[in-house]
Amino acid sequence: MDKLNIGISIGDINGIGLEVILKTFCDERLLNLCTPVLFGSSKVVSYHKNIINGELEFQSIRPGDTPEPGKFNVVNCWMDNVNITLGKATELSGQYAGISLEQAVKSLQNGTVDALVTAPINKEAMKLAQFPFPGHTEYLARELGRGQEHLMLMVNEGLRIGLATNHLPLKEVAHAIDKNLIKRKLEVFHEALRIDFGIERPTIAVLGLNPHASDGGVLGDEEEQFIRPAIVELKKKGVLAMGPFPADGFFGSGQHTKFDGILAMYHDQGLVPFKALSFGNGVNFTAGLTHVRTSPDHGTAYDLAGRNEADPSSFRSALYLALDVARSRKQYIELHANALGQRQKPADVEGEDEVLTED
Ligand SMILES: NC(=O)c1ccc[n+]([C@@H]2O[C@H](COP(=O)([O-])OP(=O)(O)OC[C@H]3O[C@@H](n4cnc5c(N)ncnc54)[C@H](O)[C@@H]3O)[C@@H](O)[C@H]2O)c1
Ligand SMILES: N[C@H](C(=O)O)[C@H](O)COP(=O)(O)O
Fold it and tell me: Do you know which PANTHER family this protein is assigned to (predicted)?
């Protein structure tokens, strides 16, 4: 497979995003694996390069230019001198994060880049800049959705935790859970495990919403009303979904190691165990989009901004996962195109197709 162009959105310029990006590509071996294309500005890159004292050379290009293979390409999405206020959420940092993300998405859509790795944005800064989405996931679901459901999926090797609801205040979660939502999330989860992760018959554990998965109806009824019926319907369609499992003991007892995927009902139910088990190596992947998008499992870490102490491992894992998933998708498409080809009647066979009748 040819070397892929990996688009990278700059994230919040006041946080640690650029630090982990630049630290990652200071290892020049990565330039043999892919061609990075960062959407931002060479001035901002130079500022952060001074913080890490890095050796990395970069190639400045304009929007629309072809990225140069083997180089760290920086697309100048703006030419202004930007006021960088390390460690602070500002309207400006939100605005530039938004510009970079929009430009990166355009380049995915027009094929200049093959996959996207997003550096962390700060939700407060994005709100100051009037960005009308709580996170990347919701924005990308609108821009790159396929008219079906998407899934926020946290990945660290064999541990894959998807969320039924994303960035939703806790008091709204129970109202959002219904049978159709769980079914749609399980379908997109199943498809991603097969196509993006290459698991032929994936198993998915579904967590309950209530304490002890409602303890037989003593502590709520969403499990019996919505979650179990969704699991039963999906099983009939061949999806190996199981549950609902009480969430509290699920990870402590090691049950999470027995499934290819775990569907949690809300953000912290899934992300607390995920980050406790994976912080530093975990990756946030958005399943169900037209294009591959990953991100590190950490945020803007304002407390570390400018200190040259941020660990780039999670960003590097996000890059590797983007490459792996893009290859897995391509392989799946090729394999199935071949299978279709093989099933087609060879041109030199004469006669009508046999008509099969139902008994
Ligand atoms: N992908 C994303 O865009 C993304 C992901 C998570 C959080 N966020 C956003 O980031 C902002 C800050 O979030 P937060 O404070 O809850 O989480 P955070 O991940 O930024 O920080 C949590 C803790 O982890 C430490 N940490 C984070 N990344 C690190 C790294 N690479 N190396 C060493 N230590 C690291 C920080 O110093 C802090 O102590 C919020 O606005 C949040 O919504 C964005
Ligand atoms: N829920 C994510 C996390 O805690 O890692 C984070 O908020 C980023 O989400 P987006 O990828 O939607 O921005």
Answer: 4-HYDROXYTHREONINE-4-PHOSPHATE DEHYDROGENASE, D-THREONATE 4-PHOSPHATE DEHYDROGENASE
CATH number for the domain whose boundaries are 148-285: 3.40.718.10
For atom 10 of ligand 1, which residue has the closest CA? 299
Q: 137 C-alpha vs ligand 2 centroid, how far in Å?
A: 7
The rounded percent of the chain whose pLDDT value lies above 70 is 94
Comparing 61-70, 92-101, 124-133, 339-348, the range with the smallest average pLDDT is 339-348
> Please, where are the H alpha helices in the chain?
17-25, 30-33, 42-52, 91-109, 123-128, 136-144, 170-176, 179-195, 222, 228-236, 247-250, 267-278, 313-343
Look up the ipTM and state it.
0.98
Nearest ligand by distance to the CA of 264: 2
CB 70 within 8 A of CB 33: no
- Decide yes or no: CATH 3.90.550.10 for domain 1-145+289-304+314-341: no
Domain ranges of the chain: 1-145+289-304+314-341, 148-285
DSSP 296-346: ESS---GGGTTSS----HHHHHHHHHHHHHHHHHHHHHHHHHHHHHHHSPP
pLDDT at 273 over 50: yes
| Minimum CA distance residue for ligand 2 atom 3 | 297
Ligand 2 pocket residue status of 296, Cβ below 6 Å:
no
Report the distance separating Cα 323 and Cα 213, nearest Å. Answer: 37
Question: CA-CA distance, 140 to 134, in Å (whole number)?
Answer: 11
> Which atom, in ligand 1's list, is nearest to the CA of 315?
31
At 339 the pLDDT is 65
The Å distance, Cα 135 to ligand 2 centre, comes to: 6
